Amino acid sequence: MLSQERQDYILAQLAENGRVIAAELAKEFNVSEDAVRRDLRELTRLGLCRRVYGGALLPAPNSGNIKQRMTDLVENKHHLSKQVIKYIEDYQTIFIDASSTNITIASELPKTKNITVITNAPAVAVALSEHPLCKVIVLGGIFNQSKGACLGNTTIQELKKIYIDVLILGACGVDKTLGVTAFDPEEAEFKRCLLEQSSRVVVAVTSNKVGTIAPYKLAEISEIDVLVIENNISSIIIKEFIEMGIKVDVAE
Questions:
Q1: Residue 130 carries which DSSP code?
Q2: Tens-digit pLDDT profile for residues 68-90
Q3: DSSP helix/strand/coil, 143
Q4: How far is CA 25 from CA 43, 123, 155, 243, in A?
Q5: pLDDT digits over 23-46, tens only?
Q6: Phi, psi (5° rounding) for residue 134?
Q7: What is this structure's pTM?
Q8: Which residues, in sequence order, are CB contacts of 4 under 8 Å at separation 6+?
Q9: What is the C-alpha separation between 56 and 67, in angstroms, rounded?
Q10: Which of 211, 219, 214, 209 lies closest to 237 in space, CA to CA?
């Protein structure tokens, strides 16, 4: 089998399963693992996969800045938000992290909820501007226009003074083995601090992020308490998450 044929097959396997194992591919192709690793390096160079120890995963989808991401999968995010709202109770302190899905969640929070919402994303605060019972606190810092969030040391120092009942965490990639990941190192640093300050962590992701990886790790998958996903995720993957101690809520 030629190198291009192997790479086409690898891409097909990634599309179907979300990951490939180098040793298994070498056996199937009847070539050395070095040959497979060269194929994976080339696919990584082209941005078609991301190499990990022992194989490769699909790269997390990067749809551009926050304004562009707000126009993607709008209906999907609406279904996810309805499930997330179930985990928010009156008189709790909620942190809504910066993400296009989380902006949708903020906009759909019932106006009967008497809660405090803290965020580093101005768009989240605006989405709550007509919520009469919601006290909104916006963390300051340097505004990252692409992420739509305040990040950096000032933001982190403000965050360290707050204890959070429920964190609604934004994620770029979620994988059972490699955990929760993000594209930006400064954003990843802030999110790691968020996790330290939070009692319960809820992550809602569209299906194109499940089984994918971005460059910077935020957390082990076991640090998530509730994972809200779409109903087109494989039952095998759902079972694997559940076996790791995560409550999986499937949005209809």
A1: T
A2: 777 777 889 999 999 999 999 99
A3: strand
A4: 14, 45, 45, 27
A5: 999 999 999 999 999 999 989 888
A6: -100, 120
A7: 0.85
A8: none
A9: 30
A10: 211
